[in-house]
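TODO from last week: model Nucleotide sugar dehydrogenase.
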Amino acid sequence: MGELPLSLAVNGREYEFNDRLVTHSPLGGGEDGPAASTPARVAVVGLGYVGLPTVVEFHSKRIDVIGVDTSSERLRSILDGDVELAESDREELRRALGTEGIRLTSDSGAIAEAEAIVICVPTPVREDGTPELAALRAACTEVASQARPGQTLILTSTTYVGTTRELLVEPLRRRELLPGRDVYVAFSAERIDPGNPDHRQQDTPRVVGGVTKNCSARAADVINQVTDSVFLVSSPEAAELTKLYENIFRAVTLALANEFAEVCRNLELDPIEVTLAAGTKPYGFLGGFPGPGVGGHCIPCDPYYLLWQLRSQGVSAPLLEQVMRVIRDRPQQVVTRVAELLAESGLTPGGARVLLVGVSYKAGVADLRESPALSILSGLAELGAEIGYYDPLVPRVRLSESTELVSEISPAEGSWDLVLVHTPHPEFDYRWVGRFPLVLDATYRFDHAPHRRLV
């Protein structure tokens, strides 16, 4: 395993900290038990956007995999190939399902057959920003109740600090299964970047924090099957907070990027040009690009796990609280900007025809989770606009119990008063957008409408 350069902003002397990283040597063992070994069979609990690629990656290493999911509908979708994988992983899954190396089931009892269990269930938040822990608690309860001596249990779901001990270690102790002696328990957060072929799971380092050193070694040997680089931290808590810090940093960066874009517009400057220019500095700057808002499974949700935990302890985090308010309010800023541009053209939102181009939260994926497009469409509808959208990857969007939209078949032929570019996907042609006189570019990088206006 080669040396990994750090991504820090410490005056360009990141290399001085490389010796502080504890790298995992495969099959190295630990001080409190026998050497670890590569598992012959792994059970993956939860087959969503993390679990399913994890199944595919394990199978590609010739490890038998048991995929467990409580949703029979999800299992059918996987068998039908109707899943949100990259095409290469989709093809690998198709091949794997034709072999004996993968078994999909809703029977949690099957996890007893595996040497290692990887928990990949979703950890969303409610409307009020409090964690929705039902799926996580249910999965951990089931795994702890089914665990047998010798197994390695790894939680990968992003969650609050202390979850691994609370939901896995304590139930195991009550069964007189001692971590580090009878079973091996660790936390290793997923690092999957959906729709980005430049960040393959195998090439993306992972962090592992075990309850004991031998727990770390056992868990790291399992995680080493899906990535070439594994780094060890002192505890599950350190690994849990590492994941939260990663996504909180991204939240802060994106909130600042959106605010800076507003500054640039007021000064009649291009925020992309300024950001790229600042990025030429080889130290002390880590930037981000502005957009219509922040969506997906991580940034709009994960920081709330820390805020929720801190509030329960009577501790405040004012910067983070403000950042999350800024992120929450960004879609409404886009709606306000639409209304401003319509007014400049002598139109009012009421009755204006507005088309959103792309509604998924990220280019190249058909994922609507926390997508700013949903709030933007709802906000425009509340102003009385006649709304539509075009997204070849997302055929339908449900805004409420009574409102469902269908993607436009021929958007170029519509009589739209304003076209809002939200999420153009890389494999489709959007040159037709430039034919419309009023184009609002919420990506700040849309090249097919030279007359575009920015949020």
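Done. Residues 22-233 form a domain with the Rossmann fold fold (CATH 3.40.50.720).
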